[in-house]
């Protein structure tokens, strides 16, 4: 269906798509972007795929990955293949998932990352899910960057403390009490 949509729908150039294309070119050539309020990942994606048909085909691929992620998420939640198939089928024919990949805008990548974050969180891969959700939050229109940055800072700080605590707990479990004291024979040059 997506290939048919690619062939039948005229080239819908939006002003956002042109901004992303130009931002990708600027970022690749100079390392900076002139586009305000744009995160650099999608402009880079636009540059790497070459824009135009290459970008549309790549975004169609992301749309298909989103359909697969919805299938996997429904399978994880309901533990029923029929329900997962129906959910994926509805996503496959959902008009937004058919049309947005043709526009060259971030909505397709956003939906894919969001579904991946929910699947990671549901499968108890909290670190990956959290990082993906922070990416989605940073990308959201109207999001207060200072609030998101503060929340991310708090999350990283908490995660840091957790990792250090787990490390030292692991070390305490590995080494026995008799290894805690100084070993004078290890300090000599023999």
Q: How would you characterize the overall build of this protein?
A:
The protein is mostly helical. The chain folds into two domains: 2-143, no CATH class; 144-177. The chain is built from ten helices and no strands. 22% of the residues are buried. The mean pLDDT is 83.
Describe, in short, the structure shown.
The protein is mainly α and 190 residues long. It has helices at residues 2-8, 15-30, 41-49, 52-78, 81-93, 95-99, 107-122, 126-139, 145-174, 184-187.
Count every beta strand, where a strand is a DSSP E run of 2 or more residues. 0
Task: Give the helix tally.
Answer: 10
Order of helices and strands: HHHHHHHHHH
Question: Biggest sheet, in brief?
Answer: none
Beginning-to-end CA distance, first to last residue: 76 Å
What's the number of structural domains? Answer: 2
Shape: globular
- Averaged pLDDT, please? 83
β-strand percent reads: under 5%
Radius of gyration, whole Å: 23 Å
Level of helix content? over 70%
Low-confidence stretches: none
- Structural class determined from secondary elements: mainly alpha
């Amino acid at each position: 269906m997506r290939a048919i949509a690619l062939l039948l729908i005229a080239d819908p150039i939006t002003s956002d798509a042109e901004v992303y294309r130009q931002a990708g070119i600027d970022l690749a050539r100079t390392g900076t972007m002139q586009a305000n309020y744009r995160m650099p990942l999608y402009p880079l994606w636009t540059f790497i795929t070459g824009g135009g048909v290459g970008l549309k085909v790549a975004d169609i691929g992301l749309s298909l990955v989103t359909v697969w992620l919805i299938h996997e998420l429904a399978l994880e939640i309901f533990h029923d293949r029929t329900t997962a198939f129906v959910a994926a089928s509805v996503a496959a024919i959902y008009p937004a998932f058919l049309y947005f990949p043709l526009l060259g805008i971030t909505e397709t990548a956003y939906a894919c990352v969001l579904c991946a974050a929910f699947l990671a969180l549901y499968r108890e891969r909290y670190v990956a899910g959290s990082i993906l959700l922070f990416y989605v939050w940073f990308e959201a229109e109207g999001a207060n960057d200072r609030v998101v940055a503060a929340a991310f800072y708090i999350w990283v700080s908490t995660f840091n403390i957790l990792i250090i605590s787990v490390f030292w707990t692991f070390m305490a479990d590995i080494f026995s009490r008799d290894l805690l004291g100084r070993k004078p024979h290890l300090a000599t040059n023999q």
